[in-house]
């Protein structure tokens, strides 16, 4: 007769119930690794002595080398057969129970397990937890540490390969001390391999550039839109025509002059004459304080 099993399991929040029809194929799926405590079993099929007057004891049924393995399933059974004689200490289906419980859930608390077989019934209750062999545990711990160590260097190498070079990062922002630029002079700094013109404008230059009629300009821009502080003009020193570097404090408009093709810029960096189509580019910058500016 097919063995019927009923397993009542107490989960974290609810009680689950599972009915399984067991077979030799199903048994082969299960692994024998459980730790069982507080086991009480009743109504197992007893094996009798030669005279068939009393059931065998637990030690009589098991080989010495198996006693230590199966002792946790020490049971007390009562026969349900008619005219059954008495209770006897016995171990029944130890291997099957271990395989079944281990293969059912990862970790569970067994409250009732019923195996119905003809006229006899086994009721087993106890705490069951899944365990891992120490050798397997050492392997898993070592694998986890090795994987984390390798992942660290892989991520670092990928970030170093994809990210910008160190020299580029170092030039991403440039801090300039404005105290080194006197009034009426222009200083040149390097930022991202580009020349940066920092011009300390005089009051006359500021008034002149603010009074320009922008409607007459090729690339119309007010002076106030190109500076954050009126006395400081900060532009990229590359001509917008073909990329030459203009000369500061030169040209017909007192700003910058490109000798390559004759482009003239005023003291606000706006194109006033020549082939250049656009004004000198204004980089992104912020004043850290009154005497320090950070470009980038």
UniProtKB/TrEMBL annotation:
Tell me how this protein sits in the membrane: Single-pass membrane protein
Does the keyword section mention Lipid biosynthesis? no
Q: Which cofactor does it need?
A: [2Fe-2S] cluster
**Where does this protein reside within or beyond the cell?**
Membrane
Q: Name one GO molecular function term.
A: quinol-cytochrome-c reductase activity
State the InterPro entries in the record. Answer: Ribosomal_uS3m, Rieske_2Fe-2S, Rieske_2Fe-2S_sf, Rieske_Fe-S_prot, Rieske_Fe-S_prot_C, Ubiquinol_cyt_c_Rdtase_Fe-S-su
Grouped into one coarse class, the protein's main location is: membrane
Q: Does the keyword Metal-binding apply?
A: yes
Q: Which GO terms describe its cellular component?
A: membrane; mitochondrion
Q: What is the lineage of its organism?
A: Eukaryota, Metazoa, Spiralia, Gnathifera, Rotifera
Name the PANTHER family for this protein: CYTOCHROME B-C1 COMPLEX SUBUNIT RIESKE, MITOCHONDRIAL
Keywords of the record: 2Fe-2S, Disulfide bond, Iron, Iron-sulfur, Membrane, Metal-binding, Transmembrane, Transmembrane helix
What domain of life? Answer: Eukaryota
| Annotated family | Belongs to the Rieske iron-sulfur protein family.
| Record's protein name | Rieske domain-containing protein
Q: Which SUPFAM superfamilies match?
A: ISP domain
